[in-house]
Design a protein that fits this description.
Largest sheet: 6 strands, mixed
Shape: globular
Helix content: 40-55%
Strand order of the largest sheet: 1-2-3-4-6-9
Distance between the termini: 40 Å
Order of helices and strands: EEHEHHEEHEEHHEHEHHHH
Structural class: alpha/beta
Radius of gyration: 19 Å
């Protein structure tokens, strides 16, 4: 049986690759469980500084498996909701993982595949990659946080158009809308994603996790809430060995070595 998820390491970077090539990497319960487990392991592993999420065979993810979705009409609503929570638990796990997660997108990221790409902390996309909120084309409504993530960088009017038409937009267009960190030549998204991930993986583990959370909370918090969270994390960070090393390195005019003696688990 084909593994739903391929896992490998490159230095301090964990690479997770969707491996349902025959179905353009359509999602499955096995994939949800494997990614959730891999991210939990990464969270507890101080030697991992960042995660890259990508897809095999030239596509990121075509979304949900429509053959499986068609069968769900026969189930009671409670069971349909339970099955959907597999996807939503995955989205929450990406959000809550203390390690930055970078999506590397080639080919299609459609439906829940788009949701998963946008759930990641950063996004590298090939110029010719294609994104689509495709649900309306099959009589369904968005899930996986698609509307929440899109609303962070487009107006309500653009969001409504994308969702009601399901039209495909290129990686270049998504970059113009503000959702893409780096545009890659076709076939090179993983290369740029790895370079960014390796840079981040050299940084301070605890500070990186707190910075990720600050960036996640900022769009939803009031200024007072964000000031409180920033204050909490700043005073916590001032007592860490990471900040001791970082400040000493700056004053001594040398590169900081944050990964030496890295902590085993994140405590906030």
């Amino acid at each position: 049986m084909t593994q739903a998820l391929l896992i490998r390491r490159e230095g301090g970077v964990l690479i997770l690759s969707n491996n349902n090539v025959a179905a353009r990497n359509a999602l499955s319960p096995e994939f949800y469980a494997a990614v959730v487990s891999a991210l939990a392991d990464a969270a507890a592993d101080a030697s991992i500084g960042a995660v890259v999420l990508t897809g095999e065979g030239g596509h990121f993810c075509a979304g949900g498996d429509l053959r499986q979705l068609a069968k769900r009409r026969e189930l009671p609503m409670e069971q349909r909701r339970e099955k959907l929570e597999g996807l939503h638990d995955l989205i929450r796990t990406v959000r809550d993982c203390p390690k930055p997660v970078i999506a590397a997108v080639e080919g299609a990221a459609a439906g829940a595949g788009l949701s998963l790409a946008l759930a990641c902390d950063m996004l590298i996309a090939a110029k010719n990659s294609v994104f689509s909120v495709a649900y309306v084309k099959v009589g369904l409504t968005p899930d996986g946080g698609a509307t929440a993530f899109l609303s962070e960088f487009v107006s309500r009017q653009v969001l409504t158009e994308l969702c009601l038409t399901g039209e495909r937009i290129s990686g270049e267009r998504l970059s113009q809308l503000g959702a893409v960190n780096r545009l890659a030549e076709p076939g090179q998204a993983i290369v740029l994603a790895l370079a960014l991930a390796q840079q981040i993986a050299q940084g301070p583990e605890l500070a990186n996790a707190r910075i990720k959370d600050l960036c996640r909370q900022a769009p939803r918090n009031t200024l007072e809430q964000q000031l409180d969270l920033e204050a909490q994390y700043m005073v916590q960070s001032q007592e860490t060995e990471e900040s001791r090393e970082g400040i000493a390195a700056f004053l001594e005019k040398r590169a900081a070595n944050f990964r030496q003696g890295a902590t085993v688990a994140l405590t906030q």
